[in-house]
Description:
The structure is a single chain. The chain is mostly helical. Among the domains are: 23-73 and 89-102 and 145-235, no CATH class; 418-470, no CATH class; 489-621, no CATH class. It is built from 19 helices and eleven strands.
Amino acid sequence: MSLDLRPCACCGKPFSAKTRKEHQKAFLNKVAQAFASDPDLNPTGLGSQLPSISTDNSIPVDMDGQGDFDEGTSAFADMSLYEEHTPSLEDILPSVEGLRRNPPVTIEDWPDVEEDTVSIASDVQDVDAGDPNRDPDFIEPTGSAPLDPSNEPLMTDEEVLRLLQMEYGDLDDEEWIDMYTRTISTKDRNTLRLLATRLRAHFSRQTYDDLRHGACEELDLPSEFVAWRRLRILSGLETRAYDMCVNSCCCFLGKYEEVTQCPFCKEARFKSDGKPRRLFRYTPLIPQLCGLFQDLEMSKKLGYRVLAEQQFEPEKILDVFDAEHYRSLRATILDPESGYHFFDNPQDIALGVATDGIRNRLENILCVGVIPGPKQCKDLNSFLIPLLDELLELESGVECPAPPTPDCEGLEATHDEGSQRNQALPCMYDQSDLVLRTHQGLLDQLQEIEAARTKTARQKLAQKYGLNARSIFTRLRSINLATCAPYDAMHLFFENLVPNMIRHWTGKFKGLDQGSGNYEILPEVWLEIGRLTSLVARLVPSAFVGTLPDIAQDEHLYKAEAYAFWALYIAPILLQGRLPETYYEHFLLMRDIIALSIQLEITHQEIDRLQKMINEWVDEYEL
């Protein structure tokens, strides 16, 4: 009886099916050991040693960025080569870093944040349980998570491999190796296109399966779980998982690395089986930046900063690169010996850290982590430490191995933990001659808070200066605490000012009545304004605003976008003749301030006029 001898994917020698299965099992055991024992496994050093499987239009990708490749090149595996050289299992380990649990950080200490001080110096509070904007409550799973693709974030590397074995158990040896090779095939391209469509269209896993088993059946696409794993292997990008408080108070790293219960809410860190109750996932920034430089089209877009400088007009502000903060950084000398300034190198990148409130398209955002809700974190620094580690590394310069740009050193990262609030009693300042805060002045105030001997004294100073704690980003040389935090128009205007003015007009502002004024609108008049508002939506294209409900009865449905459209375009019409003339003129001034503030281009003369308009509006508001 003749045996079915076929080349083994591991060593290339002809073996029977039974022997090939034994080699396959040994290979998988090696993979599991590599994931479990070596978190620093080089993500690019071994991939090129894997044999390339013969597929249509396969393109070997050189992850080190050395040399070029032809778009039409195909890769073939000449099994006869293995007769002279049999690679060991160590030579064919997967070129994937794997999930890293609680990797060490270089910054292990930062200023303590006292819980009482958080409520004094921060405007961010927990969202009420009945608020529709509240995140869903965290439901802590009991027992071990089932071996299911939907639970991938909770799975260990060994469990991932077991699930892959369930998916690929009946496939040939070569297809097991295909899972870990760095060779992009036509099937990979089709798979990644469908994944991209799923992200853009937000359709369900069931729809994904319907497509791959229906209209896309001939493409032989893998399951969504396998597709995501394949994407991670091709990109070499893996997340880091850190233990965190079950109530989102802090992340257990640095000075919290050894604690077994939350220092704020006292909840236990681990379950009875020793596993963490909740995880914070951090996606490293540097690999994401390097990945952008590997794409020729994206690398050209990354040169926008240099293009903006070339088109700079002193009298106009079109972008952040025209504004005072960036221009001052460009004039700051970092190295007196060489005369090097911030961003002198055209390949330097200016980064902005946006924790909330700055509206950008998703494709223009590099997300490094999401702090889960629904409760607000107590120590934001603990979640930002992994990012600061990378920012300090970027500040020193990081080589990006892929052309066309060899490095991406330098950055400008903006973040300020301080919040500036008014005191319990209004402070009447001259609006045209305000005392401006400086970077050194803020550092001196923080030092004074930290040097206070008692908790009560620290709280009083925190309230006096409107500061919480020293920002960890002061370690970056590009940070100026007085200017680094941009104005948050979304929250300042459309989540704060406009709703507060509505509360004034309807007599619901912090329990205060109109006193000697007469700015309140009668309830029946406000109901009519709401009714007319709801009729506007059918006449306005959706490109201008999504929904525009009855603002009198359904204001809880309003988001920043709806408030903005209502204040800019609807309210000037509906409030005329219904709001007393003096207050109507005051509202129109507010509307003009908002319109001028959010326009795409502004001159320095317009900025001066805007300052006078704001001063006038504030003076009239406080009368």
